[in-house]
Amino acid sequence: MNTKMANSIRSPRVLTGTLLALLLSALTAAFVLADGARTSGVSAQELGKLNRFLQGANQKDDAMQIFRRGRDLVEEGNWSRAATTFNSFVADFPKHKDVDAALYWLAFSLKKQGRLAEADRHLERLLREHPRSSWADDARAMRVELAGQTGNKQVIDNELDKNDAEIKMIALQSLFQSNPDRAIELATNMLKSDAKT
After folding, report:
1. 50, 114, 190, 194: most buried by Cβ count inside 10 Å?
2. Which of 65-69, 79-83, 178-182, 192-196 has the highest mean pLDDT?
3. 184: closest CA among 8, 48, 41?
4. Count of CB atoms within 10 A of residue 183's CB?
5. Which of 45, 142, 60 is nearest to 103 (CA)?
6. Mean pLDDT of 166-181
C-alpha cells in the first residue's frame, strides 16, 4: 500500500466496523485483481445459483431446454456459444418469465469474452425492464464491476450513493482499479463523514 493511501485511510479518528470492513475488503480485492489473481472461469457460487434456478424449471418447456444448453456452455467455459444461446433465448422468448435470468447470463458470457460495453447494455436492459428481478442485485454488481473497466463513472457514482454495502464495496474495487486517486478521495470522505455521525 503506498504512503498516500495509508495516510488517507488513517486520517479519521473514529471508524465504524462496517465501513472499515467495507473499505478494507475493497482495497484487498482491488490489489488482488490488479495482480491478475482472478480466474477467468465461472465461480462455484455463480454456477450454483444458475443450477438452483434451473432445478425448479419445467423440464419439458422448450425455452428452458435452450436455457439449460446455455448453462451447460457456461459450465464448459464456452462463452461465445453461451452468449449466442442466451441471446437466442431472449430473442425467441421475449415474454418468457425467465428472460431476466437469460439477460444476466448473456451479459455474464459477454463479459467473459471482454465484450464489456455489450454486456453492460444487457444488464441495463435487465434492470430497466425487470427492476424487481431476483437477478437485479447481481446485475447491479456486475454493472459496477464493468464500470471500473469501461470508465462508466456514472454507474459507480450512483451505486456509491446507495446504502447497499456490498455494491459499495464493488464500486470502490472498480474505482481503485480505474482511478486510484479518486477512490482514495472517496474512501477518505466516506470515513470522515462516518466519523462525524
Report:
1. 50
2. 79-83
3. 8
4. 25
5. 142
6. 71
Among candidate residues 6, 43, 14, 31, the one with its CA nearest the CA of residue 141: 43
What does the alpha-carbon distance between residue 74 and residue 12 come to, in Å, rounded to a whole number? 45
Radius of gyration of the chain (CA): 19
- CB distance 105 to 82 below 8 Å: yes
CB 73 within 8 A of CB 81: yes
DSSP state, 1?
-
To 10 degrees, the CA torsion angle through 194, 10, 150, 139? -40
**Global pTM?**
0.65
Find which of 22-36, 56-70, 138-152, 157-171 is predicted with most confidence, using mean pLDDT.
Answer: 138-152
Structure confidence at residue 11 as a pLDDT band (50, 70, 90): very low
